[in-house]
Amino acid sequence: MAANNLKKVTHCIFDMDGLLLDTEVLYSKVFNQISQKYGKEYTWEHKIKIMGFKSNESANAIVDMLELPISGSEFENQLAAIYADVFPKCNLMPGAERLLKHLKNNNIPIALATSSAKTTSDIKTQRWEHIFDMFHHKVYGGTDPEVKRGKPHPDIFLIAAQRFPDKPEPSKCLVFEDSPNGVEAAIAAGMQVVMVPDPLLDKKYLENATIVLKSLDDFRPELFGLPPY
Predict the structure, then answer these.
(1) What are the C-alpha distances in Å from 6 to residues 69, 91, 155?
(2) Residue 15 known to be catalytic
(3) pLDDT in tens, 194-217
(4) What's the whole-model pTM score?
(5) Does an H or E element contain 28, and which?
(6) Is 137:172 a contact under the CB 8 Å cutoff?
(7) What is the mean predicted confidence (pLDDT) over 89-102?
(8) Which of 15, 144, 155, 178 is catalytic?
């Protein structure tokens, strides 16, 4: 979308995995640790389909796609122990800390909208509490009872918007996402969306985003009426 077609926003909503935290490679490693026990490989093609899904939806989808001889809940149970070992080591994505601090320092309301469960999110963010404490609120799609449907449905972003004290209109919210399902969810919610995709993602998945960036470092807040760096 051309810069002159971008609309001014007042609030920002962030996805977490693959956008703020460099966890997608870790997810692939963990999923394969389980699937390979049954002689199956979790691949990039599988990942594209489930990015942005709620945690239980991801587990069920992987079991179905790979035809694993276990249930989705059994898959999740096996994941829990591995998560505790792997995810505390995850790092921030480039530009994440700079952008969040900039928005916070300029009194722009920010919220987190992650498809992960709260327990998993807490493990992933324990090294970065000083960053994630900047959010006004956090919506954990994997465990929040109000989030009935995961991405690509708009539920999580609409709920995140409504939990700001001033309840902004969706059009006043800017979403930051890395996954195609997340982009679709933001658009369905009536919001503009900045996409920072994995470089391996096919270009056909980038078409619906408001703008596409290689990194959060490339984001120019003033394009959306936000205070410039």
Answers:
(1) 48, 31, 23
(2) yes
(3) 999 998 888 998 999 999 999 999
(4) 0.89
(5) helix 24-35
(6) no
(7) 96
(8) 15
